[in-house]
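Input record, target 12 of the design panel.
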């Protein structure tokens, strides 16, 4: 074991260089009778001397890493990050716009057919009601498709008839800018260009009436 302060200092430096932990070195020296205070002081002083060396070593390491990625590569990475950012913004914008669009309720024109026809011609979401022999027919637009349905029945309407027409609908597609006003002329208006469960019931009634008549 070292006998002088210089020898102790050299001993500590050598052990640190070999990879021993400072607490292991201190314990070994203290076990041999050296003053714990002097040992800790020596190790601390050596540690302060070694700190700038390690800081320089880390700086050199960072410089070497940076040298592996030249400016051209850095610009390439920046372009990719910029592209990903723009893509994320566009995605959020269109997703939000779609949610806002879906959240807008359909325009209710009440019983005003002129209001309904004007908006239906542009395929806007809109609805209108029509009184039909005490019952109520509802017309609504969803993406250039007119839907007809009976939403309220006359109180004198037989229960079996109500059950037959209840929850039945008729869909009538058309092209934007070419809405046919016949569609809102009762259940039979423009029905030849429509389909659906309500259309099927009406066709059955027509056939039955024709059979009875002839």
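The sequence produced for target 12 reads:
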């Amino acid at each position: 074991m070292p006998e002088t302060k210089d020898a102790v200092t050299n001993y500590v430096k050598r052990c640190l260089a070999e990879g021993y932990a400072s607490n292991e070195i201190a314990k070994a020296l203290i076990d041999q009778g050296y003053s714990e205070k002097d040992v800790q002081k020596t190790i601390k002083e050596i540690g302060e001397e070694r700190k700038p060396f390690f800081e320089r070593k880390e700086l050199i390491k960072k410089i070497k890493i940076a040298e592996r990625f030249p400016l051209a590569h850095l610009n390439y990475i920046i372009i990719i990050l910029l592209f990903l950012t723009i893509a994320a913004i566009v995605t959020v914008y269109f997703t939000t716009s779609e949610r806002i669009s879906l959240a807008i309720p359909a325009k209710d024109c009440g019983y005003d057919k002129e209001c309904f026809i004007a908006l239906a011609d542009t395929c806007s979401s809109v609805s209108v009601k029509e009184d039909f022999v005490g019952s109520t027919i509802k017309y609504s637009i969803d993406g250039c498709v007119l839907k007809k349905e009976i939403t309220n029945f006359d109180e004198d309407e037989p229960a079996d008839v109500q059950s037959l027409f209840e929850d039945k609908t008729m869909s009538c597609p058309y092209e934007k800018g070419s809405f046919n006003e016949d569609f809102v002329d009762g259940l039979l208006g423009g029905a030849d260009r429509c389909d659906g469960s309500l259309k099927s019931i009406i066709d059955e009634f027509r056939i039955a009436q024709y059979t009875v008549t002839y």
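Confidence is low (pLDDT under 50) at residues 51-56.
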